[in-house]
Design a protein that fits this description.
It is built from one helix and 15 strands; from the N terminus they run αβββββββββββββββ. A hairpin with a 3-residue loop joins strand 9 and strand 10. It is elongated.
């Protein structure tokens, strides 16, 4: 067994040099966190305005609170749907023989609990009628856990007589709580088999991960002088649910919003809309899934050039 331990040590050292030596797979993730949600940022500057500071306050509600899917990051399994390994006497690692685990895992291994409601306050400063800087906070609560989100970004916009278009890009910083079961698989360089055996180690981690993700949003809206206006918006970005040993479970998403807005006064606007978030599968074995919510938003113009 001492010889096997030496082999494992040498293989692990080699893995630091050859990055493809080790792979990480999340076998099961139990996550608690809020989906990334952004305010509707509309463009409707009067012709005599060059700058504006607006506060967006949004409240959203979704019916689903637990999502259970296959995230595509599980190890391959044998014909019975089990990740088959062999124990090594006296060691904490296992051996994975070639030709055994050759099938995609078809069960559910991601269990994401989300709050039913979220609130957000965001600031939007437009200047020169073409550029904006944004920043804000998001808050929700899941049982006794308080979930906060911070975001900052930049936008480019263009407005014509009756319509406007805006492109936003930003970063989102937030926390997620998780319990993860994952494995590290390393090739045995000393094995005579082709392909070689693999060393396998099992880990369990539980805690809080600090996440930073990027997103971009394209928004079209009407901007008529009177009456209701309409908008449609599409976003693309990433959401991290768990992280461990330098690797993370990150899901890409696309979000679509549509709704109606009405200027209450020159300094205020009320918005009603719906959002559909499509979380994209991370591999051919994974599953995509949808999260829908309804929201109401109130905008206040703090600085309004007359």
């Amino acid at each position: 067994m001492k010889k096997a331990s030496v082999k494992l040590l040498i293989s692990c050292l080699a893995a630091q040099i050859i990055s493809s030596c080790s792979t990480f797979n999340f076998q099961r993730i139990e996550a608690e966190g809020a989906p990334i949600r952004q305010p509707v940022r509309l463009t409707d500057l009067p012709e005599d305005e060059n700058y504006r500071l607006t506060v967006h306050t949004q409240f959203s509600y979704n019916g689903d609170s637990l999502i259970s899917v296959n995230n595509g990051q599980h190890t391959p399994v044998n014909a019975d749907g089990v990740f088959e390994v062999e124990p090594v006497s006296g060691e904490t690692y296992f051996l994975e023989r070639p030709g055994i685990n050759e099938f995609d895992f078809e069960g559910e291994n991601l269990f994401w609990e989300i709050p039913r409601w979220q609130a957000g306050v965001d600031f939007d400063f437009i200047f020169a009628r073409s550029i904006a800087f944004t920043g804000g906070l998001g808050y929700s609560k899941l049982r006794e856990r308080e979930l906060w989100r911070q975001n900052a970004g930049i936008a480019f916009l263009r407005q014509n007589r009756d319509w406007a278009v805006r492109l936003d890009a930003g970063l989102h910083n937030y926390q997620s709580y998780h319990r993860s079961e994952y494995v590290e698989r390393s090739d045995d360089f000393f094995s005579d088999e082709v392909p070689p055996d693999r060393f396998v180690e099992f880990f369990t981690t539980e805690g809080v991960s600090e996440n930073l993700n990027f997103s971009t949003t394209l928004t079209f809206n009407t901007c008529r002088p009177r009456g209701e206006d309409y908008f449609i918006s599409a976003s693309y970005g990433g959401q991290t649910l768990a992280s461990a040993s330098g690797t993370s479970s990150e899901q890409g998403y696309m979000a679509f919003m549509a709704g109606i807005s009405n200027n209450i006064t020159r300094y205020g606007r009320l918005i009603f809309g719906g959002r559909l978030m499509n979380v994209i599968r991370s591999s051919e074995a994974g599953q995509s899934f949808l999260i829908g919510d309804l929201f109401v938003q109130f905008d206040i113009n703090l600085i309004d050039q007359e």
